[in-house]
Amino acid sequence: MVARIEDTRTATSNLRARRIINSVLLYITVTVVSLIIVFPVYWMMISTFQPSKYILHFPPPLLPQELYFDQFGELFSEHPIAKWLRNSFLIAVMTMLLCMALSVLGAFALSNLRWPGRNLFGLFLLVTQMLPEVLILIPLYILYRRLNMLNSIPSLALIDAAFILPICIWILKGVFDNVPHEVLDASVVDGCTELGALWRIVLPLSAPGLAAVAVVAFFFAWNEYLYAGIMLSSGEFMPASVGLSTLKAIAQTPVEQYMAAGLVFSVLPVVFYLAMQRYIVSGLTAGAVKG
Amino acid sequence: MSQRVDANAPADPSSATKAPHPLFRRRYLLPFALVLPIVLYEGLLIVYPIIQGIYGSFTRIELASSAATTWVGWDNYERMFSDPAFWKVIRVTLLFTALVIIVALTIGLLTALLFNRPFRFRPVARGMLMMPWAIPEVPVVMIFIWILSPQFGVVNILARMLPGVTKNPQWLQVPELAMGWMVLISSWKAFPFYSLVILAALQSIPQELYESARVDGANRLQLFWNITFPGIGSTLELLVVLAAIFSFKQFTIIFLMTGGGPSGTTETIVIRIFNTAFRFYDYSYATALGVAGFVVSLAVALVFILMQVRRAEESS
Fold first, then answer.
1. Residue of A52, A138, A216 to mutate for B, most B C-beta atoms under 10 A
2. Is A197 inside a domain boundary?
3. What's the pTM?
4. CA–CA separation, A280 vs B10, rounded Å?
């Protein structure tokens, strides 16, 4: 009897020991994996916030030696980065407004209305979003050259919006799908027209989805590099994505300024993307995954 | 109410002579009126350029001179298929795409499995996991140009730990290393997205399945192979196709870091198209390459759509 109690006691203490070992292992793995993943971001921070005399040294110290904040002032006074950011902002706002207006129409037709050709329309959007942008760069460039639309911020926003609109419609469709049918039916019984229902019921219930579309469209244009570089070749209209890529680390731009420029450019997209990640992912997988 | 139901049906011949009810008319036309601006817009900026591109690939385009474009038939395509450089581009593209699919999805799957376990600070850890995905491509390029700097790059500390390495390698000048870094950086940027999608699929697996299997004495490996893997299998299939599409599209990272070099070893087809048009100003040939890329991506997109349709049929 006593022996049996002893047995179960060692068994439970073994079990507890195993559980502790398992959870310690889990924490160690999670920590190591997270450190590896964020290391490049950490390195950008380290290289931004200390004077480059520490980092221009091999091997560089892995921990910051001294905090330093003058690089931001130097960056803005030595490079036209304020102008670049302003251009990026203008392109992004125009793309966002265009996308929001059109995606509301498309998503409502796709989600809430029944009509022949609905599936075809959805398919059409799916295919356009999957084509590599560079494939139509040349014909679009030739077209824009002929129409004298190169070097114009609104012209570039038109292209950016065309590329991101299909994804925006898919995101918003997913959100509109979640509006309860009873509410829509009730509104129709109350004499609401379809557009009335869209305006008074669907849109107010879909505020987070609209915000997601705004974020996706805005930062697609903000981040876009390929078309911005080709269509806005004059320095006056250069957006930050193109401007940043012209900076040369060490040789021409001190490392702390170079990395500070990357940091300044990344802050907004990181904050907003992380806040809206669920919606963005749902749009990119186009309803493939119900998350 | 019945009027509304009728309104959805196509007009039958007997009622064709009657003027349609205002409600009928509006209801029938409304969806088309809503999507018309979108179709026109996408048609003008996406579809029309594609058609122009296909047409252009059969011509000789002279942008610099005022000479009109001339019809050259299949010349550009004959040149393409007999060009060894084209086949090298195809090999590089296939290699890059396949490697990114494997690396990014493997990291995505492993991190999803790890971050699906309950532990404290999990929301913080998941937020950190998403960081690479949220940072725009141009700053990603800047970070890695600095990390890979042969003079001061921090990655050299690791390299120097390997036996026999006494000098900092020229990371982007050696073909194998350059390709390896393009794959790693693209995967680092892309994997959080796959991880998040797999996490969502993992959470949709009913917990009761695990509990009853555990009661039946299944071990961890058996749980994974018999419950987890089938549970996320179709999601993984879709992600393979999606990853193929995304990595096929990858332009900015390769273009800004190697430009396709050293000696074309990282030159995927999208980089080749750009270089042909905007470095060598050979627009017609670049357009033919573009058509080749278009055919490939259309085929992959169709696979994705067919898989979607199959999934929709299975779930209904």
1. A138
2. yes
3. 0.87
4. 37
**Same domain as B28, residue B139:** no
Within an 8 Å CB–CB cutoff, is residue A287 touching chain B?
yes
Domain-located, residue B75: no
Q: Do residues B251 and A241 touch, judged by C-beta distance below 8 A?
A: no
Does A43 share its domain with A121? no
Instruction: Quote the number of domains for chain A.
Output: 2
CB atoms B143 and A40 under 8 Å: yes
Contact A149, A90 (CB under 8 A): no
Indicate yes or no: CB of A106 within 8 angstroms of CB of B34: yes
* Residue pair B131/A38 in contact by the 8 Å Cβ criterion: yes
Tell me the DSSP string of A210-271. HHHHHHHHHHHHHH--HHHHHH--SGGG--HHHHHHT--BTTTB-HHHHHHHHHHHHHHHHH
Q: Which of B42, B143, B248 sits opposite A132 (nearest CB)?
A: B248
Q: What is the pLDDT of residue B5?
A: 37
Neighbours of A172 (CB within 10 A): 29
Domain that holds residue B193: 83-315
Q: Which regions of chain B are under pLDDT 70?
A: 1-27, 64-68, 316
For residue B260 the two structure tokens come to 């396709």
Residues of A in contact with B6 (CB under 8 A): none
- How many independent structural domains does chain B possess? 2
Task: State whether residue A230 sits within 8 Å of chain B by CB.
Answer: yes
